[in-house]
């Protein structure tokens, strides 16, 4: 059984992107993965709700790929959620379109991992900061799994960490398509890298 | 008179038959002309002794070509080429001359004759090579640019050679040489009797006239002519300029080709450049063609047959020696791979200046007449062989390197496809500013000298000319362009332009500005890729402002504008189709009007959609869930 994976990519300044853009490009070549660049498709935030809903129905795994902006998503992804996740589509009595699908946030964070701790300068863990997304998924009866994160993303290229990350990203996508991800385990993690090999079946 | 007509008819007829066939066979137009010349001359004897006279006349094609070459080069570019020009060009001329001289000495000729022959044969054919480069699109390659530097140096080197050759005169051939003047202008020469210092002064003065006149007087003159709106006057002015400079240069004993080249360089930055190019181009083409025909026609088969051994040895030796020199220089100057081969193969012949120098040397008693008689067909035959070497380059060299290149990663594109903007009026200039601000190179064309002048004051570089002329689009570089923005005022011409470009340059994306709805449909039908009505977005913008004045929330206004635009874009293809099903004189058929009203309805419902209270299931917006929805979660 193969799963259909949808990547919704949100980055408003792609000419400056060192991590997200290469990740998006990596995803392009993989069979079974649909890549949508939201800022390219809706440069005026004029989101085509019907088309987006149809696309959601056709996929099993939904990935939000974005740089972490002020502890949340870039504006267009919020707009996308506000508009597309409608009553009686995504939630409400007849809102079962997304039921049992998987939601996976894939994030680049500027801060180091130790900054996202109770005693770090961000005070909360990344998983905690993503609670609004997690609860959105819950309300839509989706499976929210722990985020796939690259920390310290501003220096990932200089530190030669990007290629490793891209390799694991590709591995993850292929596993998602081939339905080889242990979602129950993945839900429990802080982020996927805490036990990357453990979640792959 | 009748005789001239018959002669002209024979020449043209031969060209019209031979050139298209040669091109079809992949031989290039130059070989076509040469073959045409051989057929009407030595083979059938249709033309005869007058070929030499015609050849002198046709050499004017070379003069025009150098003018065009000059137009392509602004002084800064020329300065940038200086290393190659002097290094590569200088070494080529010197080494080729000396090696050929050495071969001649070995064959038993005297030193001075050998040196003269070396100089004559060291020059290559600017006409054949540049023409072929242009046809094959090789001019912008590294090899093409290097070859051009060499050719340019050779053309300049002709002047000191003309001065030097009389010094080689051999007393036993009688008489002392004339002063340094071109052979066939000798009778009109005004300066040969002047003392050296005055002669130098006159030469410098003439060059100054060309540069200063070109720089300061050409613009007001062209503006004055452009304002008359008579195209033929512009052509006449362009011809007058080229002929006038040639006359001046001949009078003072300089090469007309070099003079017009200089004028071309001076005018390279002028906004009239493309129009000048377009006007001169056909004359150049015809005259050069004529010149090649005469080269073919002047081959004396009897002479060649009776001296076959020595002539073929000479042809072979020249091409080997020159090829060897060029190949080594290509290595030395790091012109690599297929570019190095292009340099080697393209310049391994003797050229048209060879003929000029040859008759000059005979006149100055440097080279004996019988040697010249043999050298003349040798020069012609090497020129004849050049197009064949180009075929070798295409079939062998390029193929070899292409096969190799396929395995290399694609290199970054160093030259971005340019954007041509036709019309720099109130519309085109906004497009242009946006592109230029993003460092995208644009070529701007406009037919109003006044507008060009005005925009040049705010540093927008634009060219004068009627952008709807296919040949002007060609000189503006439509072949290499990526986009064409059609923003000219004349709706009919805009339409013609779109049709022409779509047909002949389908790789170019066309973005067109429409005058109104109907024009927009026509442009779409003609093949424009993107059409924007000149009033559409500004009206939408103003309509939005009106809503804001009427207290509609600004964000709501944006949504309505977006909704309006969406309906318009969605219905565009449909209504465009309907429009074209109507008659040309009555586009507003009943079905068109019905469709129009239907779209009006769609528009209203699209805009109304968001105005309903509560939760609207027909459309989507930032709609809240219905009241009491929380019961769902009990």
Protein topology:
The complex is a heterodimer of chains A (201) and B (634).
Chain A: E1 5-9, H1 20-28, E2 33-37, H2 38-41, H3 49-57, E3 61-67, H4 75-84, E4 102-108, H5 126-129, H6 131-139, E5 143-144, E6 148-150, H7 162-177, H8 183-188, H9 196-199
Parallel strand pairs in A: 1-2, 1-3, 3-4, 4-5, 4-6
Chain B: H1 2-24, H2 29-43, H3 51-58, H4 60-72, H5 75-80, H6 82-106, H7 111-122, H8 126-136, H9 142-164, H10 196-228, H11 231-251, H12 256-267, H13 273-297, H14 301-306, H15 308-332, H16 337-346, H17 352-363, H18 369-405, E1 418-422, H19 428-437, E2 442-446, H20 449-456, E3 463-464, H21 470-475, E4 481-486, H22 491-504, E5 509-514, H23 517-526, E6 530-533, H24 536-549, H25 554-581, H26 590-608
Parallel strand pairs in B: 1-2, 1-4, 2-3, 4-5, 5-6
TL;DR?
The complex is a heterodimer of chains A (201) and B (634). Chain A is of the alpha/beta class and 201 residues long. Chain A is built from nine helices and six strands, in the order βαβααβαβααββααα.
What does this structure look like?
The complex is a heterodimer of chains A (201) and B (634). With 201 residues, chain A is an alpha/beta fold. In chain A, 35% of the residues lie in helices and 14% in strands. In chain A, strands 1, 2, 3, 4, 5 and 6 form a 6-stranded parallel sheet that branches. Chain A starts with a strand and ends with a helix. The model of chain A has no long low-confidence stretch (mean pLDDT 93). Chain B is elongated. Chain B is mainly alpha-helical and 634 residues long. Chain B starts with a helix and ends in a 26-residue tail after the last helix. In chain B, α22 packs parallel to α23. Chain B has 26 helices and 6 strands. In chain B, α20 links the parallel β2 and β3. Chains A and B meet through loops of A and loops of B.
